[in-house]
Specification:
By secondary structure, this protein is of the alpha/beta class. The chain is built from 12 helices and 13 strands. Helix 7 (209-230) crosses helix 8, helix 9 (284-296) packs across helix 12 and helix 10 crosses helix 12. The protein is elongated and about 80 Å long. The N and C termini lie far apart (52 Å).
Length: 380
Amino acid sequence: LPGEVLTTEWKIDDIVIADGFSAADHNEAAVQGIHAENLLIVVDEAGGISQTIGNAIEALMTGGHTRLLLLGNPPTDQIGSWFERACRSDLYNVIPIDAYSTPNFTGEVVGAWAKNLVDPAWVNDVISEFGEESPFVQARIHARFPRTTTNVTIPIDWLEAAVVEEPVWEGRVRLGVDVAADGGDEFVVARADGLCSHIVHNSTNNDNAVAVAGIVLDHIHRAQKDHADRGVRERVRVKVDSIGVGWGVVSLLKEWGKENRHDADIIAVNVAERAYENEKFANQRAEMWWNLRTLLQPSPDGGQDVTLAVDRKVIAQLTAPTYRANSSGRIQIEAKADMKRRGVSSPDRAEALLLALFEPPTHEYSIAPPLSITQTSGWI
C-alpha cells in the first residue's frame, strides 16, 4: 500500500486514510465524530458488538457516500443481539455463508489457504460433540442465529447415567483440590479411584494455607496406603487450584515432599492460564470442564469413560455453568461471578472433581491414554 501503515492508522501524505479501533461495550463516545465525504465502515466480529456501539455505528450512516460492512458469526450466547437485528433488517444486504458453502466442501481451488478454512472433519467432530440442534452448531456451521442459548456444559442425563450406587474403588488414585480462594465458598478435596470419582472433604476452612495443606496431606497418606494395598506403583497425583491461597498450599505440599512427608506428585493448576489446547479453549478452566464433558459423553453403545459416586448437590453444580464460543471461536465456560449474578452458587465441589480427573501434561507425565476404546478425546 502507498503511504505509511501504522498499528492503527494508514496515512498518505500525513492524511489519515484508514483508522482502526476497538470501543468498550458502552463507550458510545468512541464511535462519534467520524465523518468523511466517502466513508467505509468495516466491523469485524460483529456478533460481539453491543447494542450501544452498534447503534452509534449506524448513526454515522448519514452521508450519501457512506457504506457499512459487517463481518461475523451469530453469537451463541445471546438472542436478539444488535448483529441479529441488523441481519434481519431490510437496510442490509445479508450474505450468509454456512460451512458447507466454503471451499473445502465446494471444491473451489484456494491453494494453501484451504488448510486455514473449516473442513469436513471439524464439522463432523463439532456436530458429534455438541449435537445438531445446539446453538454452537447452528451458529458456527449453519450461520443461523440460534433460538435458544441453553448451552449447558454437561447435560443432566449424562450425569445421572454416570452415578453409581455401588462404586468400585480400584486402580490409581488422583486427588483434586479446590481451595476456593477466587470467589468460591468451600475448600474441597475430590478423589478419583480408577474410573470412579467422589468428594472426600468439604469445609469452609479455606483461608489458612497450613491448615488446608495439612488436610490434603492426610488424604495423600490415605491414597498412598491404598496404592500399596492395591499394588499400584505409580505415585499419587495431586492437582491443586493454585490461585490465591492455593499457591501457598502448593508450596507447602512440595516442601513437605522434599522433607519425605509424602511422595506424591504435586501439580499447580492455574485455571485462568492459557489452555494446553489453546486453539480450542479460552483457558484451562474451560479445558477442565470440557475434559469431564468428554469423559461423560455416552458412546454409541451408551457407555461412559467414568462413573461418579456423588450426591445431588454435586450433580447440580456440574450442570450449573453454561458455555459459549468467544470472539475467537474458543470454548469459554461461564465465570463464577456471572453464575453468582444469576443466583447460582460457586461450583467448588464440581471443580475439585474436574481437577482430580484433569491431567495437565508435564515434562515427566504426558496425557494418559483413555480407558475406553470408544472415546479417545478425554483426558483421564
